[in-house]
Amino acid sequence: MASPHGHLVTASPSSPGRSAHMRGAPRRGRARGVAITAAVLLSITLTSCATGEMTDAASAPPATVSASPAPSPPATPAPAPSPSAEQPPPTQVTIPAIELDEPLIDLGLQADGSMEVPVDFDDVGWYTPGGRPGGRGPVVIAGHVDSPTGPAVFLRLKELVPGDTVTVTAADGTPHDYVVTEVRDVAKNAFPTAEVFGATATDTLRLITCGGLFDTAAASYTDNRVVFAERL
User: Fold this and answer.
1) Which residues form a coiled coil (predicted)?
2) In sequence order, which residues have a C-beta less than 8 Å from that of residue 65 and are 6 or more positions away?
3) Fold (CATH) for 19-231
């Protein structure tokens, strides 16, 4: 579903292969913060996935994204688990089922309460206020589905099914394996913030991108796709 309007947090248009995204060395890049804006507490919703921006939902974009050309009003993000100091941050994400192997950049929060998103459509980002692999979750990772010129890094995320595995490698080289338990598309106005960004007692993982149909009037996708995974 590659749209001519660059979209954030990817889902997976068409193209089955993705040789352009098989990189090995982790890299830390800049992130932009007008994509996912946090909604007050647990009512955060990812509003825009278009034009390289995800608006709405600093803590958890739903599997459905209702685009909105302008960022939502700033709000306080839902409480996220404090990363354990002893757990190193993640630096790489690998998903064999869709031939994805990408370094991770850091995604924090903007002063206005919005979640940063990658500036580069081929970057995948880790939400730093969330969990870290090996600790308590959730570990939240987001990426674009397409760009103004075609597919982006999370193009094939929609192909994942329960049982597929995801490996998140930490800065110390330790691999942390997760198994996909659910892939859900959620309307932007029904984003399950608590489920996606809420603290968990165990090590869990969330992958977020855009999904649903592309709304040309709003210049954004109607949904967000969220992949839920548990530690193996």
Assistant:
1) none
2) 9, 46, 47, 48, 49, 54, 56, 188, 210, 211, 212, 220, 221, 222, 223, 224
3) Sortase; Chain: A; (2.40.260)
